[in-house]
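Module 6 notes. Inverse folding takes a fixed backbone as the condition and produces residue identities as the prediction. Think of it as a translation problem where the source language is geometry and the target language is the twenty amino acids. Below is one complete input and output pair. Work through it position by position during the lab.
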């Protein structure tokens, strides 16, 4: 599952847009650099759950629900 943006918490800082190596937020107008601009999740299928955007979001506005199949620990 791609990240979910809590629009009430999002500051529009653009950090997630800049950090995602898979361009999940590709096409966010102004590349997330306009004050108050919210990220657009345009390529949700590209997210590989690295959690970088979640960890670096300054306001805790991003959440990822990890699919059950990905939570099974490896031996
Ligand atoms: S890093 Fe967080 S606060 Fe900044 S644009 Fe992304 S969701 Fe919004
Ligand atoms: S979890 Fe990683 S791949 Fe997925 S949107 Fe965030 S930075 Fe991109």
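Target side of the pair, the amino acids:
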């Amino acid at each position: 599952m791609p990240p979910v943006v809590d629009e009430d918490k999002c500051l529009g800082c653009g950090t997630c847009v800049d950090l995602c190596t898979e361009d999940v937020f590709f096409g966010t107008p102004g590349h997330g650099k306009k004050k108050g601009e919210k990220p657009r999740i345009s390529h949700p299928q590209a997210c590989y759950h690295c959690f970088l955007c979640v960890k670096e979001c300054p306001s805790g506005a991003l959440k990822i629900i990890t699919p059950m199949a990905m939570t099974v620990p490896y031996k």
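Reference fact for the lab report: The chain has one domain: 4-70.
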